[in-house]
């Protein structure tokens, strides 16, 4: 019989790429991970890993087993959801991840509703960039999260994560000048830019939008908080891309020019967890909070 904990290690190796990364994710030593994977190979009766230089890669049999491991782990999530439903009252921790604009605009009302309707739930929010969410879900540091991507740079789906759509937003060019409605990005070719921290989704999207217009942005400032971004724009420090959720209180003098680019927000959770009553309650609460926010 294959051990579920070892299957999870193999699945995470397929996702993270190195034994060192798997060890860090599980707070094991690399040698402990290697030993557990060696035991899994003996259980499977076929080689699952092979070394290419200093790297370890999956054999064809290892790839097949990872696919089945994902099915098994999703089934365990579904079983946990069924047991939680059988217990009745929602209780215990619900670890929620979200990006900053969602924490500021959509989450507060959802948290109030969840606390009112399910007082035994322990709601815990962590602010993080969407690129970090799949790993945090796999490591069970999060149970559910709000994530986003952009139509100009869609994120490759993660097989370990399921998601439901929540919100589509217009993306604006924030600038001190009125710009051109025909080619607003093109008019910023010689402007200074305010972009997100390298490695974030927003940083990558800004580069992609400018490249699509035929130039690389001249980056002057890095800022991840859109209130700070808009303040810098108002101070004449550059231009930036800003999503709709961040534009409610734009400072005087900032012009917001709508672009064709859209930002898509989704609610993400581990594969198989959609029927967990706490996840379902969160989905309903944040959907209602989003509808209310947009109505105002």
From TrEMBL:
Taxonomic superkingdom: Bacteria
Coiled coil (UniProt feature): none
Keywords attached to this entry: DNA-binding, Transcription, Transcription regulation
InterPro entries: LysR_HTH_N, LysR_subst-bd, WH-like_DNA-bd_sf, WH_DNA-bd_sf
Domain HTH lysR-type: residue ranges: 2-59
PROSITE patterns: HTH_LYSR
Similarity comment text for this entry: Belongs to the LysR transcriptional regulatory family.
Protein name: LysR substrate-binding domain-containing protein
